[in-house]
Amino acid sequence: MKRRFGIDIDGTVTCPTTFVPYLNDAFGLNITLNDIKQYDFMPLVTVSEKEFYDWFKNMEPVIYSRSPLAAGAKEILKRWEKEHELYFISARDSHLLDITKEWFTNQELMYNDIHLIGSHDKIEAAKKYDVDIFLEDKHDNAVNLHEELNIPVLLFNTPYNQDPIPDGVIRVNDWKEAHTWVQNWIKNN
């Protein structure tokens, strides 16, 4: 039986360290992923929110077109694309759809749809696609998706998502662990 997967892109399919070299270069920092203790980058930089927003909007196409895959993501997604329906749901703005689709093509990753919603509220998109499970790296998204939709949500473990999680949100350290969890879940459901 095919399952419908809702999958975040940034920090989930792409490596969570993607933004680190760009932040270091642009703002004279020397941080690693372990220094990012919350989802918001503002506490790390010494510029105004407007300056940071302007920099980010300017750099988004560059960063998103060059984002490295998370370790193990391609292997697992290639396996899942044959067995399930994959709906990539991202907070990226819709004007980035062509860049995003080109990145998926370059990575040789298939998808049933890519939905860029321009905000972090992914509940409506997850409902639209009637997903059975969601994969995410943002803590509050994972909790909200689980609580609203009553589906399992795999939360990719990072330094910036360490708040407590309810039952039904499952921390995974990598794509291999995610795949193992999903296989067991499918077998038992």
Count of β-strands: 6
The secondary-structure element order is EHHHEHEHEHEEH
Trace the largest sheet across and list its strands.
3-2-1-4-5-6
Mean pLDDT: 97
Shape: globular
**Sheet bearing the most strands, described?**
6 strands, parallel
The structure class reads alpha/beta
- State the separation between the terminal residues, measured CA to CA: 10 Å
What proportion strand?
5-15%
Question: Treating each run of at least 4 consecutive H or I residues as one helix, how many helices?
Answer: 7
Helix content: 40-55%
Question: Can you describe this structure in just a few lines?
Answer:
The chain has helices spanning about 20-25, 50-65, 75-85, 95-105, 125-130, 140-150, 175-189; strands at about 5, 85-90, 115, 135, 155, 170.
Describe the structure.
- The protein has helices at 20-27, 49-66, 73-83, 97-106, 123-128, 139-149, 175-188; strands at residues 4-7, 85-90, 113-116, 133-136, 153-156, 169-172.
- It is of the alpha/beta class.
- It has a 6-stranded parallel beta sheet with strand order 3-2-1-4-5-6, with helices on both faces.
- Helix 2 runs parallel beside helix 4 (97-106).
- It is globular.
- The mean pLDDT is 97.
